[in-house]
Each structure stands twice: as C-alpha cells, then as structure tokens.
Amino acid sequence: MTQVSLHDLRKSFGAHEVIKGVDLDIADGEFCVFVGPSGCGKSTLLRMIAGLEGVTSGTVDIGGQDVTHAEPSKRGIAMVFQSYALYPHLTVRENIGFGLSLARKPKAEIAQEVEKVADILQLGPLLDRKPKALSGGQRQRVAIGRAIVRNPGVFLFDEPLSNLDASLRGQMRIELTDLHARLGATMIYVTHDQVEAMTMADKIVVLNAGRIEQVGTPMDLYEKPATPFVAGFIGSPKMNLFEGRVAEQQGCDVYGIRPEHLTVSDDEGRWKGTVRHVERLGADTILHVEAEDIGTFLARIEGHRSYRPGAVVYATPDPAREFRYTSR
Amino acid sequence: MRRGQLFGGIAALAIATVVFILPFLFVFLNAAKSPSEASQPSFAWPSEWQFWQNLVDVVQVRDYALLLAYFNSIVITVGAIALLVIFAAMVGYVLQRRPSRVSRVVGFVALTGLMIPPAVVPTIWLLQEIGLFKTLHGMVLIQVAYGLSFCILLFRAFVASIPRDLDEAAIVDGATPLQVFFRVILPLLKPVTLTVIVVQSITIFNDFTHPLYYLPGSENITVQLTLYNFQSQFTSQLNLLFMNILLITIPPLLVFIFFNRQIVSGMTSGAVKG
Amino acid sequence: MTQKSPYPYWFFLPAAVIFLGLFIVPTVASFYFSLTYWDPFEARFAGWDNYVQFFSEPFLIRGTLNTLFFAFVTSVLKTILGLLLAVLLTSGIFGQSFLRSVVFFPVLVSTIGVGILFQELMHPTEGAINVALAAIGIDGPGWLTNPSLALFSVALVDVWRGVGLATLIYIAGLSTIPNDYYEAARIDGATRWQLFWRVTVPLVWPATTTVIILSLIGGLRLFDLVWAMTRGGPGFSSDVLASVIYKQYQAGFWGLSTAGNVILFLLIALIVAPLAWWLNSKELDA
User: What CATH number is attached to the domain comprising C109?
Assistant: First the structure.
C-alpha cells in the first residue's frame, strides 16, 4: 500500500515562501497530476516528495511512513526527470542497472532485472548503446526503465514529455497510461500542459502560487471548477471570464462561460457582437467576437459553419453551464 | 586565398622562422658538435656530427645524474597530478554545486593562490619542521598546493556544464555523495581532466624555482636543475649543455604535438568570460 | 534544511589541508618572520629593521625598481605584440596554423634552457645576434654585459618566450567576436584602421584584461629567467625582487629575504588588484 499524504507542507527560500501549506492525499495506485502555470511550485512540491528539496515545515508520508526527513533513496520512490538525466558515460544497460549496482546486488541479479525491464519497454536491441545514440523517445523509455527497475511504490515524473515533439508526446501519453495500468503503482506527474493532465490523470491537483486551487477528477475540474483560476486553466480554448459590469449584472464578481457552451445565431441572442477573427480548426471553428458592452469573448461553433470578420452575430450562454464566482 | 594573404603569409613565415625557429636550430646544431667546435657556438654546420656520442656523454655525466633527474621529475609530476586532479575536482564540484557563504570564502581563498607569490623561506622552515624538506613527498605536496587554484577554477567552470539532474538521478538511485562524485561526475570531467593533466604536467616538469628552494641535494636533482648545475661544469663542453637543453625540451614538445587542443583550452581559460 | 546536503563541505578538506598548510600558513608566517633577524639557527624580533634596510640600501632599492620596470616593459610589449600577432594569425594568411604553433611553442620550453640559449646568442663578441648585426655593419651592444642594458635584454627574452601565450589568449578572444560587427562596420564605410580601433580593440577587451593581469603577475614574480641569464648582474644591475629573495636566503639572511617576499606580495596586491578592478569596470562600460 503506497499512498502518499502531504500534511501542511511548506517551503521557503529565505523570506520567500514558495509552497504555502499543502494538504493532499494520493491513494495507492492512483495517477495524480500536478498542473499549474510555471512558477506555481509544482516541481518544488514533487522534489519535496522525492526528498531532493528540504521541507521547511509539515510532513510527507509515503506508504504510511513519515519520510519527511528521509534520504531520497530510502523513500521507495523513483523519478523520471525532464532532461531524462541519463548518465552519458554509461550504456543503456548500465544506466538501468546503476541503482542496483550501487546497492551492491550480485551481477547476475542485476542482469536479470535489467532484461526484465528491457522487455517491458522493448529496449532489448538498445541495451549496449550510449544515450547519445538514442532518439528522444528512446531516451525517455530508458529513463522510465531506470525508474521501473527500482520497483518503487511511487513513480515521480517531472514534466517528462516536454522535450518531445508533438506527435511523440501523444504516443508517450498513451504508453505511460498503459504502463500505469500494467504496473498498478502510484504515479505523481508534474506538467504545465492541461491536455496532459486531462488525458492521463485519475486525479488532478491544480496549483497556483504555492497553494492548491482544486483537487478532483478531470471531469470534476471541467464541469465544476471551484475558482476562476481553475476555470480559466482547465479546458481549451479557455473559458470566457468576465469581471466588472457583466459580472455585476449576473450578481457575482466573476462570471464564466466556456466557448463551447455559447449558442451562436445570426439574428437573435443575449449578446450582440462583431466577429473580429476566425480560427478554423477543421472540426470546430473558434470565433473571436467583440461585443459593445462586455468586450471580447470566444465562441466555438461547428466546423462547417463559417463567418467572415465583420459579420454581426448573437451569442447566448447555456444557462446550465454558467459559472458565477463571488469572492468573500 | 588572396595574393595579399599568400605574400603576407610568406613574409610572416620568414620572420617567424628567424625569430622563433632559428634559436631551436641553434640548439640542435650545437648539440651535435664536438667540444672544440661548440666552444664558440654558432650557426655553422658541424664539421662532423657526433650527435649520438654527445647524447651518451651527457647521460653519463655525474654518474647518470640526468637519468636520476628524469626519474625524480616524473615521480613529482605524476604524484602531484594524481592528487591535483582528485582534490581540485572535488573542490570545484562542490563550489559550483553549492553556492553559499562558505563556498564564496573558499572560492576567494583559492583565487589568492593565483596571485600571491609563495613565501619561500617560511615554507622551507615549515617543511623542515614537519620533516618534508628535501624529500620528493614534500615536493609533490608543494606542487599540489601551488597548482590547486588553477585546477579548481578549470574544474568549477566545467562542472557548470554538467546538468544537476544527473546528480539527483544518482541520489534517487541511492548514491552517497562520494558515489555521485566518483561514479557520475568524475567520469564526465574527462575532457577538463585531460586539460589539467597536460597543462600541469608541463608546468611542473618545467618548474625550476621551487625544486631549487625546496629540493636541494644531488640525489634530489630534477631535470631543470640538471641544466643549472651543468651550466658551470660545461663551460668547456657547450655541446653537452646544448644536448641537455635538447633532451629536456623533448617531453614538452611531444605533449604539445599530441595534446595541442587541451593546451590551448587550458591556457586560454578565463580569456573569454561568459 | 534537516537533510544532509549531497554536496558536503568535507570535499574541500584534502585540498584545504594542503593549500592552507603549505601555502597560506607560510604566507601568514612571512609577515611575522619579516620582522625578525632570522637565520638558519634563530629568529629574534627586529621590528621594522628589515624593511628599513630594504629601502635604504641602494642595491635593494634597485631590485624593487627593476622589478617594476621589468613587469611594466614585458606587459606592455606582450599586450601590444600579442594583439598584433593574433590579428595577423586570424586573418587567414598562408601557413596560419603552423605559425600559431611556432609562436606558441617557446611558452612550453624550459625557461632555464631558454635563458642559457640566449646567454650564448647574446654574447657580446661571439654571440650569433651580434655576429649577424656585424654582417650588416652594426656594432652590436653588450646585451648582458652592459649594466644599463642587461635587464632590458632579459625582458626582451621574456617577451620572446611569453608572447605566444598572449597571442593565444587574444586569438581565443578574437574568435568570440561575431563577424556581423565587421560586416556592419564595413557597410558603414569603416577603413581597416577604423575596424581595428573601433571594433576589434573594444570587443577583445576581456582578453586584454587577462593578458595584462597575467603578464604583470608573471613579470613581478619572475625569477628563473633572470637567474639563468645574468644572476642579477652585472653587479646588481639586473636584480629583481625574486632574485634578491633568493640571494638573501642563500646568504643566510632569512629575515631580510622574507621581508623581500612580503614587499613582493604587497606590490602585487597593490598593483594588480586595483588594476584588475579598473580593467573589469571598463569592460562593463564597453
């Protein structure tokens, strides 16, 4: 049982607090994604769980044990780095077996473990190459292999796909999800890309400025974003958020409606505006509409419908999908 | 290539030949002459070549002192470089990886070593007190002390180019600080280590001043001191003196031919800040 | 931070023991010993006597002035010649890489060997230099035998030996200047002379700083070449601080020798540190 729980975790660099009290429970076998804009503290939080970053106050429990002050290698974790961190002077085989050789395991056992991992990740033919001679996707797999061989309770991933090109990234997302299903281990995954979060996570943790904004399943966050920040961060294209007079009319401080929950019509609707810009994505078309009283907003319509810039349109929000936020 | 570059090049070659190559030719020619011919050394061709004879003679002088000197110099150079590489790399590594007040102080103290002239007589007194005066061990440690600053700077600059992720991956894999250093970092320092070895070996091999002070005694002679000692003895045998110069110039020449790139990168470090 | 750093300070320890023990401790001790009458048998406190002697005996004053002269002349020549040679050896002339090697090689050769070699070449009557000069009708001077010329001759040999390093540093500096600057300036109609003064010199300034500082430190500390060529002679005419330190040590005047060491240390600190600071600040302005 390797659940992870963080209790009132804080981290300061000098006078500057970067993690401002995080409480979180991650269940055994869960795929948990930390997502947030750069500088929100998500990588720092991951590194605190790994033990690479000291904890200012609070506790980290892994598998029911307090590991707040334990060495990284004593926490039953493995980590995959953004840069992969493959040792350039060692072959793939030596890279995967490095941790075992540090632990002075017998050679035969190391060889056997490495073969097993190579099978899982189809690395067999690459075992005697140096990292230099591998493609980006292959390096990524070696880095994962080095994590698997430790047989950890918890896998930590620090933006592992950000150095790959778009098509490979899509493929690796699927491979990682499959791997999670096969190993059944707890995984914590840091990314700034909400698409990765939505597609892979059992549980998403949205972080902002060192605090948790919201925790939930991908659909929870999409359907019931707790704060305007989460509302704006999860979903693509971004939710339209209005402050000021529009929000006041709705009896709140911030009023939100997703572009896909606006009905666009040629002749009637709640808001009248002019099309300023048209983005055709094929299946969908995104309209940038400028309305006199409320400013610019986005609306998503089906791909076969088309408007020219300058056309006058009417947009009506779906009343069941409106969000109203009031700050206390 | 333009004509100007060609003619300019030929002119430069001619001048460089006169200024930089003729002196070495002078050494070579006179090292091959008979004692009487070499007593007034000149660019004249030797009337009879006795290159090999002179070589044998100079090696035999003072009961094979030159061989002993080679042995001593090699022991000092190899010993000092082995310690320098390990110790300076350890310091450069931690200095680069752990910015702190302690590191700043250590970095500053290390820098002073590039500037301050060693206080020779107090050093002699200290070496006498701890029993290392006139010993090869003492000389090795002295060369380490005087070479550390330069090596630390080189290593520190190079460590900056090794991603920290590698250290952390090893730490997560359960490596102790020593294991991270010896199994991950040190192998990756190979290029700069080679530079340090090449530059320091030439420096230490060519060092005259410090063995003169700290390593007196004929049994402790080093190659540079052979020249100095023979200078008075060979006034009537300048051919042997030139042969001696030739013999101690050969090791640096070989190193220069094979490790040109490392020498250039080591000698110019610091010229380009960035 | 309660965890132990993966970069422990004890990694400094082996180097620190050797460096502090054999370099810093003697340096600190030298301040004390410079205030003593010290010989191989005893050290008695002497106050400022050694320093007073250093600045009253003409041959000791001469040593200090010679040191400054030597460092100044060699630094200036190495800087100017080094830059000119580097510009020449990066201009794509015929035989460029061979020439670079030829210019640099003396840096790696035994200083004592160079000293003895030039001692022969500079012999007043039979030396190759004066023989060559005589062939074109010039009566060559007594390079090392004329007291007013000896130190300058040694300085010339030091430049011959060291200019390769300055050249190498300048070549490295020049290679970092993007070609765009030259092309832009040429489109603006700059002449070769203007290119050199307005583009090359300012942009190669970091290399200039390094060359000047290295040459000055080397020049102030120089011992082996002087010792091999003149032993400080004729008389004391080419003595520098480093040779005075050695002579006083040999004569058993350890306290006086150490005072010379401290003076050398102070000279370097007082000249090099402010100069390095000033050169670096000019670099930021550029």
Answer: 1.10.3720.10
pLDDT of C281 higher than 90: no
CB of B94 within 8 Å of a chain A CB? The answer is no
Contacts of C19 in chain B (CB under 8 A): 109-110, 113, 145, 148-149
Each residue of B35-52: pLDDT tens digit? 888 877 888 888 888 888
Query: Closest approach of chain C CAs to the CA of A17, in angstroms?
Result: 14
Q: Per the CB < 8 Å rule, is B110 touching C108?
A: no
- The pLDDT tens digits for B51-106 are 888 888 888 888 888 899 999 999 999 999 999 999 999 999 999 999 999 999 99
Q: Which H/E stretch holds residue B169?
A: helix B164-172
Largest CA-CA distance found in chain C, in angstroms, rounded: 82
Chain A closest-CA separation from residue B259 CA (Å): 22
Question: Domain spanning A4-231: which CATH class is it, in words?
Answer: alpha beta
C116/B241 Cβ within 8 A: yes
Strand boundaries in A47-137, DSSP class E: 57-62, 65-66, 77-80
CB proximity list for B81: less than 8 A, separation 6 or greater? B196, B197, B200, B201, B204
Domain ranges of chain B: 52-268
How many interface pairs between A and B have CB atoms less than 8 angstroms apart? 55
Asked whether the beta carbons of C16 and C9 are under 8 A apart, the reply is no
The CA distance from B221 to B218, in Å, is 5
* Residues in chain A closer than 8 A to B181 (CB atoms): none
Rounded-to-integer distance, Cα B217 and Cα A181, Å: 76
For residue C239, give the DSSP letter. Answer: -
DSSP state of B189: T
Separation in Å, CA of A75 to nearest CA in chain C: 13
Task: Give CA angle at B46 (B42, B51), nearest 5°.
Answer: 110
Q: What is the pLDDT of residues C89-128, one digit of tens each?
A: 888 888 888 888 888 888 888 999 999 999 888 888 888 8
CA distance A214 to A221: 8
CATH 2.40.50.140-classified regions of chain A? 238-325
CATH fold label, B52-268? MetI-like fold (1.10.3720)
- How many whole angstroms separate alpha carbon A270 and alpha carbon A322? 14
Enter the tokens of residue C177.
Answer: 């200047």
Q: A71 contacts in C (CB within 8 Å)?
A: 3
CA gap A218, A204 in Å, rounded: 6
Q: How far apart are the first and last CA of chain A?
A: 40
Please judge whether C26 and B123 are an interchain contact, meaning their C-beta atoms are less than 8 angstroms apart. Answer: yes
Q: How confident is the model at residue B272 (pLDDT cuts 50, 70, 90)?
A: very low
Residue C94: CB atoms within 10 A of its CB come to 17
Q: Is the peptide bond before C106 cis (omega within 30 degrees of 0)?
A: no
**Radius of gyration for the alpha carbons in chain C, expressed in angstroms and rounded:** 23
Please count the other Cβ atoms lying within 10 Å of the Cβ belonging to residue B85: 20
Q: Would you state the pLDDT for residue C285?
A: 60
CB burial of residue A237 (10 Å; 0-12, 13-18, 19+): middle
CA pair distance B225, B50, nearest whole angstrom? 25
- Looking at residue C282, what is its pLDDT? 78
pLDDT greater than 60 at residue B270? no
Residue C58, pLDDT score: 87
* ipTM for the assembly: 0.88
Question: In CATH, what number does A238-325 get?
Answer: 2.40.50.140
| Segments of chain A scoring below 50 in pLDDT | none
Chain C residues in contact with B118 by the CB 8 A cut-off are 23, 26-27
Rounded to a whole number of angstroms, the distance from the CA of A71 to the nearest CA of chain C is 7
* CB-based burial label for A232 (10 Å; 0-12, 13-18, 19+): middle
